[in-house]
C-alpha cells in the first residue's frame, strides 16, 4: 500500500492483439490500482509502462521490440532527470520468449506471462531490488480469483459493454497457431464466479456482456450442481441476471457447437444473432494440413444449424491465405465457401510461420506476391459482402445499444445486434439503453438514423469503444 505522503505512481499499459489482452489489461490495472497505481494514457508520464503483447503473427511480435527501442530512450532520458521508469512485458510474447526478451532488450525490468498477472506487484518489487523478475509458469492456482476486482468507478468509466473471460487456453493445436503454447491448455472458470463478475458489472451500468475465451464454446466450467456446464447452459444463466440486455461470446470453434448453444440462440433474446465462427480456409486439403478436424461441408452444416433457429443470424470469420502448399484451386475453394455463407464481416491474414508450431516446418511456402494477391481478392469479396449486409439495414428499424457521445456534437453512437456502429442525434440520457432506430443511410461502415420513439430518461456512465477482435480461432 501507499504511504501517506507518496503521490500515486502512474501506470501506462499498451495492449496489442485480441480481446483477451484488452480484458487482461483491465485486470492488471485493477490489480495494480490496489497497490496505489493510477492509469495514465501518456506513456511519457508513467512510472511503469506495461506492453501487453501478442505473438499470433510475426508482425505483431516484432512491434514489441520497436516499442521497446523507443521506451529505452524515454527511460534513459528520465533517469538523467532523476526519475525511474519500470518497463514490463506481459502477454503472449512474454510467455513465448521469457528471458530472451531481457537478453535482447535489457531495458526491460519484468517479464510476465498471461497466467501470472496476479504476481505483478511482487515481480515489480523484485525488479526494484535489482533481482530477476521473469515469470512464465502455468501455476496451478486460478489467477482469476487472485486478480483484484475492478472498482465501481473503473467499471463505469469503461462503459456499457464489458468482456468477461470464461475460458482460457486451447487444446485444438491447429498447426499454424501459437495459442496452445502461449495460453496453455483449456481451462474454464466456475459458473458462479462468472455470475458474480457479471452481477458486479451490471450493478454498475454494464448492459452488454461478451464472454471471451480462446475456444469459448469448449467451455466446461463447474456449475453450482458440481457438474460441468456447457457454454449454452451458461448463456441461459447469464441471461437471468438483471440488467443484462445483450450477451455475446467469442471465439468459437465449429467443432464445439453443441445443441445447447443452438438452443440458447433459439430461446434467448439477449443472445445476439451474430457469431464469430472462424473457418480459416474453404479447402478440405488445407483444413486437413491445418489440423482443423473439420471440412468445409461440416462448417456449412454448423452454420445451417444456427440459421435453422435464427434466420436473422449473421456470421464473421477469420481466414488465413497462403498456408504452405495452398494452390490457386485451394484458394478458390475458400472464395467459394465465402460466397456460399455470405459474411457480415471477417478478418483475414497472410500466413505467418510461428516458431515451434508444426506448420513452421512445412517447406512449400506460397510466394509473397501470391499471398498479397490472394489476400486482396479475399478482402474484396468480404468487403462486398459486408457492404451489402450494411446496405440491407437502410430503411429498416433496428435495435441499438447506445454507448457514448460521438465526435459530432449532439450525436450518440451505439451498436446494432451485428456490432455495426449506428449514429443518431439524441440526448446523452439514453446511453445504456437499447432503443429502436430507423436507419436512413450508410457512411462508410457506420449506419446513420433516428430514434423511432422518445426514450425514457436514464443516465449512464460514459464509455470507451470496445474493439471486437478475434481471439484464438
Ligand atoms: N499466421 C496467420 N494468421 C494466424 N492466425 C493464427 N495463427 C496465425 C498464423 N500463424 C489467425 C487465425 C486465427 C486468428 C486469431 O489469427 O485466423 O483465427
Ligand atoms: Fe486453438 Fe483457434 Fe489456435 Fe486453432 S486457431 S489452435 S482453435 S486458438
From TrEMBL:
Gene from which this protein is expressed: miaB
Signal peptide bounds: none
Enzyme class: transferase
Positions of [4Fe-4S] cluster 1 binding: 18, 54, 92
MTTase N-terminal domain span: 9-129
Major location (coarse): cytoplasm
Protein's UniProt name: tRNA-2-methylthio-N(6)-dimethylallyladenosine synthase
Taxonomic superkingdom: Bacteria
Source organism per UniProt: Bradyrhizobium oligotrophicum S58
